[in-house]
Amino acid sequence: MPQTTHPRPPRRSNAEYRWSRPRIHLFLRALAASGSVAAAARAVGVSRQSAYRLRRRLGPDFARVWDEGLQIGGEMRQAGLRYDAQGDRWVPQGDTSPLQSDRSGAQGDTFAPQGDTFSRQGGLR
């Protein structure tokens, strides 16, 4: 009986595995949002090991940004907020409503676009 071969899917180019500035920014956002290096790496299509190699390669300044992102993300989650990637903002855990600009006559607490900000020391301003 002849064996049928299925065509292989095309190989991904090396460029799809490389770290670019946009991919690094997305990774840092996902890292703060999830608090997990593995989850953040999966979110941008790289391995956890690749993320740690990037951290070593970019040195102490990048490591500091990485650590601050984890700290701020942890504080936000502890305050009962979750990161809404679609709206690119932190929202209350139970909030599943669309962006504020899409709401018509919504009631309840909302955050103004300028919202609370974090200082570099990690506290609310």
Sequence-ordered SSE layout with sheet pairings:
Layout: H1 21-34, H2 37-44, H3 48-78, E1 81-84, E2 89-92
Antiparallel strand pairs: 1-2
Account of the 3D structure:
With 125 residues, this protein is mostly helical. The chain has a domain at 18-93. 42% of the residues lie in helices and 6% in strands. It contains three helices and two strands; from the N terminus they run H-H-H-E-E. It has helices at residues 21-34, 37-44, 48-78; strands at residues 81-84, 89-92. Strands 1-2 form a two-stranded antiparallel sheet. Helix 1 (21-34) runs antiparallel to helix 2 (37-44) and helix 1 crosses helix 3. The chain is extended and about 65 Å long. The relative contact order is 0.10. Residues 94-104, 116-125 have a biased composition (Polar residues). Residues 85-125 are annotated as: Disordered. This is LysR family transcriptional regulator.
